[in-house]
Amino acid sequence: MSPSGRVDGIFIEHGDGEFLSYPSDHFRVDNGDFVILPPIKLKARGLCQEIPLIWRKDQALNELMGKKKIPSEMFEDLHKNFEGALNQLKADAKALLDDIDKQITKCTRQITELHSALINLEIEREIGRIDGESYQKALEMIQWGLKSVNAEKSDFETLRNKLSNMLLGEKKTETPETPIQKETQETTAPTSPTLPEPPVVVHVKSPNKQST
Q: Which of 80, 89, 178, 191 is 20 to 30 A from 28 via CA?
């Protein structure tokens, strides 16, 4: 707790008995349960908010310069800062897309393994090597696991699509001419593109009730 009473972080006991500390922005409370948010999803959420914001700021800077409300030398410095920040964010987004693809591949493998387990369970029941109660319990566990992993995969695919569309939209957008460039060219600069709104990131609770 901070001196003001705000929760700065929590310690969570995992299923193996290990205690790990998590900052306050890495978890949320869901019906009385603490849900740890995966770092990859937190980073994606941040990028989806920051990239459009930098775009808008740079466009606003160009408009202010066009209205001659700021000195040209200050415009150049600020424009370079925004451009550098945007390039770094795009590089982070591309790296994160690779991590997301790995998570999707992992989920796909888990789904295949769970389907294989389901088939083997049915075979064992068919030949009479497993009683009805054990069969039903195992079936419920496998079905719950499939539901959870499919939801996780869908969540990562949504993240990947949002980040990919954001980067693709930026590539297709012609770089707007600065007011200084406009003074030296006879062509008219393209109109400002419509920027995507920050997306809503859905977080899926871990299926392990003992560890988060």
A: 89
Q: What Cα–Cα distance (Å) separates residue 28 from each residue in 7, 32, 163?
A: 11, 10, 23
Question: Does residue 156 contact residue 104 with C-beta atoms inside 8 Å?
Answer: yes
Does residue 186 register a pLDDT over 60?
Answer: no
Contact in structure between 55 and 49 (CB atoms under 8 Å): no
What are the tokens at 93?
A: 């987004």
Whether the pLDDT of residue 91 is over 60: the answer is yes
Q: Please enumerate in sequence order all residues whose Cβ is within 8 A of that of 42, keeping only pairs 6 or more positions apart, or say none.
A: 25, 26
pLDDT for 28: 75
Q: Output the pTM of the full model.
A: 0.65
Distance (Å, whole) CA 203 – CA 189: 41
Question: What is the 3-class SS of the chain, one letter each residue?
Answer: CCCCCCCCEEEEECCCCCEEEEEHHHEEEECCEEEECCHHHHHHHHHHHHHHHHHHHHHHHHHHHHCCCCCHHHHHHHHHHHHHHHHHHHHHHHHHHHHHHHHHHHHHHHHHHHHHHHHHHHHHHHCCCCCHHHHHHHHHHHHHHHHHHHHHHHHHHHHHHHHHHHHHHHHHCCCCCCHHHHHHCCCCCCCCCCCCCCCCCCCCCCCCCCCC
Query: In sequence order, which residues have a C-beta less than 8 Å from that of residue 25 and are 6 or more positions away?
Result: 37, 42
Q: What is the spatial distance between Cα 102 and Cα 83, in angstroms, rounded to a whole number? A: 29
